[in-house]
Write a structure and sequence with these properties.
By secondary structure, the chain is mainly beta. Helix content is 10%, strand content 35%. A 15-stranded mixed sheet has the order 1-2-4-6-8-10-12-14-16-18-20-22-24-26-27, covered by helices on one side. Strands 7-9-11-13-15-17 form a six-stranded parallel sheet, with no helix packed on it. Strands 28, 30, 31, 33, 34 and 35 form a six-stranded mixed sheet that branches. The model is unreliable at 1-10, 62-90 and 893-899 (pLDDT under 50).
């Protein structure tokens, strides 16, 4: 997709020239997960990178041939003069010996088939006439036989050319190993044997070439590891070993090569980490180690090399970059594509305004792009495709910047695409496989299509999020696309159910009224934009899976620890049911229908503090695990001030919290009228005993916290009074020798076992005893125990007794026979009446004076419930089998069910 660069620069370079091995590049791309259908495109991108790097290397490379020509009359002569004694002492080979070495080279490399072999004759003593041989002071100092169809191997006799400064045998068909004798060419400055078929290891003797400045061995079949002796080459400026079979790790001794300007190790099998010692190469401008197996973190020392302008480490297995704050770069080209680098892209990578080329594609980068990219006003090529980056594209350049190619495809970018229509230099814009909608670039689309050499925008990721919707029959369901509102008025739509088009479903929303079981299925929607025609892009929303259930009746009721509700105090409610795995939506509704409070989904407990007196409804929508819902409500009256509960001084008071929820923590806080904390206790039992020390008003705050950390507050006012027994209680007299009934209701609660359920209460009773005028007991006390069904937690006690003839006083005791702490007994509606008599009692609301309950002669209650306007809507009857509705009245105007 970036393959137009060579045409733009006016020069087409062959793969061989730039060192681009198509087969090995293709293999490396496959190893990094590039799909077959994307290979051609990615190979073109890699060729572009190789081209850029080759041109950069050539721009920085010193023309050694010209340099040597300038030095020929001076340097060689000086070297000969200064080294004459050493050469004589070593008995350096004569010109005849050098001729013999050349003849050995000719014979070993199939001289008769050379492309040019002018002058190569054993009978020709004038070596200066031999093709490719250069002399200075009658000594061979340069051999240049590049591209001359040499085959065979380099002979060991090469050592007999001791004055040789340049050996150029590149672009031939040489085979075999590099002879170790090459290490004896102590004056060698240029070794150029690239683009051959040499194999085997690099001989460690190469480290003896301490005058070597340029080593070109790329595009061969060299194997084994890079010898650590290479660190001895402190004069070396260019190290080119790319496109070989070298393996093992890069030796740390490479950091000793203090004159290095360029390193090329591309297309090998090097492994291990990048040695931090490379940071010692203060003159290095190019570090190119593409397509190897290097791993680990890229050392920060690499990014702090002040002269480094080209860093190409793509197609390896690097996993991380150093911390952002530690980077100090002056890069022009940065290529880290096809690695496994994760995390955020450091902003300091883009602090240089000379940065021209960046390729970070095919990594694991996430997060948003650093804003520092806007500093890069000289960008030419910017590739960050195939990562996990998100956010918008606000980092893109202004219209005046000279960007040529931008590839942000295969990420998670979204939002408005910046307007780049007037940027004449920008020819490549690839934004496909992100989260863009038609509306994000529809206004610029036509211009991009007309002016960009390459403009890729399709496909894009699916819109919205996948959902599973589970509802009961009869619900109205609204399905929609572009739920975030990012759509264009000209977008068109088509809905599908289970992959089949739904007729006439061509809107952004699709409504299912009164859902039935047959409506269940998987729904998707496709969106198109035809004016302008933005095909082939088709946006499809993530699937909506609809489940429609035939729901069973969910039963339960809303209860409250107290039926007294007043303003400025928290009112608490609990949903009691035998069903499990429920979700709850509570709300408090005023008489006007206004929702005062709709908290997020919570649990079975709900609390709200009312600000004003009046009639209210507590509503609850309960949803079970299958998605079936049921609605419940409770009408309440909130008064301006609640009457405090009276308790007796100097008597222990048991305070308890009634709930069906488990695993709760409680904090009990008791305050006096000055808001001083009298006691603060935390426990998990839901009960607390307290002995109030003085008369007066007290305030109880209870904080209840569930396992997930959710808390509710409950309050209650308590008035402590002096409960003095009456001195004379003679207003109630019994007729002697008459038969009487005693009855009442009892509830036993064990706060140590809050979930314990029993069929009969066994620790409670009503005891009646008599004494004569002398205070002596008359007979045995009558003891009456509970019997019958337990109704809403209460069990009835009933019995008969006869009043003795000699009675003077009667005593009635309410008995708790339990010896266990926390076992409480509650009594209610205690009655004594003749067996032939009849008694009814009535309960009225103290604020509205409405009849709330009527208790018949058998202690069974009839309950009356009213609507917000005071109309009677329901009558319930308490029986030995439970509480049943015996009358219900509903009225009101009909309305459509829109739920």
């Amino acid at each position: 997709m970036f393959n137009s660069l060579t045409a733009v620069t006016g020069q087409v370079l062959s793969d061989e020239t730039i060192g681009f091995n198509v087969d090995r590049v293709k293999s490396s791309l496959k190893e990094h997960g590039v799909a077959n259908e994307d290979l051609d495109r990615e190979i073109a991108k890699e060729r572009e990178v190789f081209t850029i790097l080759y041109k950069e290397m050539k721009k920085n490379e010193i023309d050694t041939l010209t340099l040597q020509a300038v030095k020929k009359d001076n340097t060689i002569a000086v070297n000969n003069k200064t080294n004459r004694m050493a050469v004589m002492a070593a008995e350096t080979p004569t010109i005849e010996t050098q001729r013999a070495a050349l003849i050995a080279l000719y014979n070993s490399t199939n001289g008769p088939n050379w492309r040019s072999k002018t002058g190569w004759d054993v009978n020709n003593p004038d070596l200066s006439k031999w093709y490719g041989v250069y002399l200075s002071n009658n000594q061979v100092y340069r051999i240049d036989l590049g591209g001359n169809n040499l085959s065979g191997s380099i002979p060991p006799e090469i050592k007999n050319l001791p004055y040789l400064k340049e050996l150029r045998l590149d672009s031939n068909n040489l085979t075999g190993e590099i002879p170790k004798e090459i290490g004896e060419l102590k004056q060698l400055q240029v070794l150029q044997i690239l683009t051959n078929k040499l194999s085997g290891p690099i001989p460690p003797e190469i480290g003896n070439l301490t005058n070597l400045e340029y080593m070109y061995m790329s595009q061969n079949q060299l194997s084994g590891s890079i010898p650590p002796e290479i660190g001895n080459l402190k004069s070396l400026k260019t190290l080119s070993l790319g496109d070989n079979l070298l393996s093992g790790s890069i030796p740390p001794q490479i950091g000793n090569m203090e004159s290095l300007i360029d390193i090329g190790l591309t297309l090998n099998q090097l492994s291990g980490t990048l040695p931090v010692e490379m940071g010692n190469l203060k003159l290095l401008t190019g570090l190119v180690i593409q397509m190897n197996n290097l791993s680990g973190s890229i050392p920060v020392e690499i990014f702090n090399m002040k002269k480094l302008t080209t860093l190409a480490l793509n197609n390896n297995n690097f996993t991380s970059l150093p911390n952002d704050s530690n980077l100090s770069t002056n890069l022009i080209y940065l290529y880290l594509a096809y690695n496994k680098i994760s995390g955020n892209i450091p902003g300091n990578l883009f602090q240089s305004n000379t940065l021209r080329g960046v390729d970070l594609s095919y990594n694991l980068f996430d997060g948003t792009l650093p804003i520092e990219i806007k500093n890069c006003t000289s960008f030419y090529l910017f590739k960050i495709n195939n990562n996990q980056l998100s956010g918008n594209l606000d980092f893109l350049p202004s219209q005046q910047n000279p960007w040529y190619g931008i590839d942000v495809s295969s990420n998670k970018f979204s939002g408005k695409v910046p307007n780049l229509t007037t940027s004449s230099s920008l020819k490549v814009l690839l934004i496909g496989a992100n989260n863009f909608y038609f509306n994000d670039f529809v206004n610029e689309f036509s211009s991009y299509k007309a002016t960009k050499t390459a403009f890729s925008f399709s496909p894009q990721a699916k819109t919205d999020t996948p959902k599973t919707i589970t509802v009961g029959q009869g619900k109205n369901i609204v399905l929609s696309m572009f739920e975030n509102g990012n759509f264009h008025p000209e977008d068109t739509y088509q809905w599908f159910k289970d992959g089949v088009e739904i007729a006439a479903a061509n809107s952004r929303t699709y409504v299912l009224n009164n859902a039935t079981l047959s409506d269940a299925g998987t729904y998707t929607c496709k969106a198109y934009h035809l004016i302008p025609d933005m095909s082939p892009l088709v946006l499809e929303r993530e699937p909506l899976i609809l489940n429609v259930l035939n729901c069973d009746l969910l039963t339960g009721k809303i209860t409250s620890p107290s039926e007294e509700f007043c303003i400025s105090q928290q009112s608490a409610f609990t949903f009691e049911t035998t069903a499990a795995n429920l979700t709850y939506k509570w709300s408090a509704i005023a008489s006007t229908g206004l929702a005062l409070d709709i908290p997020p989904d919570s649990n079975a407990n709900y609390a709200y503090t009312f600000a004003n007196p009046g009639s209210y409804i507590i509503k609850l929508e309960v949803t079970d695990a299958a998605g079936c819902t049921a609605n419940f409500s409770k009408s309440i009256e909130v008064v301006a001030a609640c009457v405090p509960e009276n308790v007796c001084i100097s008597q222990p008071v048991n305070m308890s919290f009634e709930t069906q929820s488990v695993n709760l923590n409680y904090k009990w806080i008791i305050k006096d009228t000055s808001n001083n904390i009298i006691e603060e206790v935390s426990n998990t039992t839901g009960t607390h005993y307290f002995l109030f020390p003085t008369l007066g008003l007290y305030h109880l705050d209870l904080v209840v916290t569930s396992e997930d950390g959710c808390s509710n507050n409950f309050t209650k006012d308590i008035y402590v009074i002096d409960c003095k027994p009456c001195d004379y209680c003679a207003s109630f007299n019994l007729v002697k020798n008459e038969k009487y009934l005693v009855s009442g209701w009892v509830k036993e609660v064990d706060y140590n076992l809050p979930n314990l359920q029993v069929k009969n209460y066994s620790k409670s009773s009503i005891s009646i005893s008599f004494t004569d005028i002398s205070g002596t007991d008359i007979g045995v006390p009558f003891n009456f125990h509970p019997s019958g069904e337990i109704i809403d937690g209460w069990q009835r006690i009933i019995g008969e007794f006869i009043v003795p003839n000699n009675v003077d006083d009667m005593k009635l005791d309410l008995v708790n026979e339990s010896t266990t702490n926390g076992k409480m007994v509650y009594f209610d509606d205690i009655r004594i009446l003749p067996t032939k008599g009849n008694m009814k009692s009535f309960v009225y609301d103290q604020q509205t004076q409405r009849l709330m309950a009527e208790l018949d002669e058998n202690n069974y209650a009839t309950f009356y419930e009213y609507d917000l306007e005071g109309g009677l809507v329901r009558v319930k009857k308490e029986t030995e089998k439970g509480v049943f509705t015996i009358q219900e009245t509903r009225s009101g105007n009909s309305k459509n069910d829109t739920e």
